[in-house]
Write a structure and sequence with these properties.
The complex is a heterodimer of chains A (109) and B (116). By secondary structure, chain A is an all-beta fold. Chain A has no helices and eleven strands. In chain A, 40% of the residues are buried. Chain B has 116 residues and is mostly beta strands. The chains are: A mainly beta (109), B mainly beta (116).
Chain lengths: 109, 116
């Protein structure tokens, strides 16, 4: 039931761009995105709702493709502070939010 | 800001013990969740609750139970702890949450539980 994220890990240099994908086998009504730094709690980034527009947070934006049952997270001109593990979450049933396995992003100077 | 507080950051217990993990939120949220986090497996939902005394199974409920007697408190119980329950446990809450809403989840700092 978990959504599938790809890639599992990414290593970038500061200033480079990255894309993280989240795919579901079930029709999507919304997608949540969170970031977790090592040793810390996951922190909310954004929610995309079906029929909604692309959203942004700092230089991080996301899109929602209903037909492909997929969401993508775009990190532009990455900063060292963007390092961490990114999780997408989708709903199975009305209230059950389940998360993907995570994508570990490492930004090097 | 929403505050989700888990009672312990680190906990060491022995096999067969009954273990209680406590979670308290201070924002009158309807929904509360317990997740387990293991390397490479992401966040897996154990149980969630959408109201006092109400609970629903998540993806991996076996070996666990929960209790929600008051709106602000959600407890995870390991009935008879086993070594394969060694993990990081994360509690979360949301104001209300459905597939059609825009309410985020707020997480606690986690409890790293070791079963010896």
């Amino acid at each position: 039931q978990q959504p599938v994220q790809s890639p599992q890990a990414v290593i970038l240099r500061e200033g480079e761009d990255a894309v993280i994908n989240c795919s579901s086998s079930k029709a999507l009504y919304s997608v949540h995105w969170y970031r977790q730094k090592h040793g810390e709690a996951p922190v909310f980034l954004m929610i995309l709702l079906k029929g909604g527009e692309q959203k942004g947070h700092e230089k991080i934006s996301a899109s929602f493709n209903e037909k492909k049952q997929q969401s993508s997270l775009y990190l532009t001109a990455s900063q060292l502070s963007y390092s961490g593990t990114y999780f997408c979450g989708t709903f199975w049933g009305a209230q059950k939010l389940v998360f993907g396995q995570g994508t570990r992003l490492t930004i090097n100077p | 800001d929403v505050k989700v507080t888990q009672s312990s950051r680190y906990l060491v217990k022995r096999t067969g013990e009954k273990v209680f993990l406590e979670c308290v939120q201070d924002m009158d949220h309807e929904n509360m969740f317990w997740y387990r986090q293991d390397p490479g497996l992401g966040l897996r939902l154990i149980y969630f609750s959408y109201d006092v005394k109400m609970k629903e199974k998540g993806d991996i409920p076996e070996g666990y139970s929960v209790s929600r007697e008051k709106k602000e408190r959600f407890s995870l119980i390991l009935e008879s702890a086993s070594t394969n329950q060694t993990s990081m446990y994360l509690c979360a809450s949301s104001l209300f949450g459905t597939a059609y809403s825009n309410q985020p989840q707020h997480f606690g700092d986690g409890t790293r539980l070791s079963i010896l």
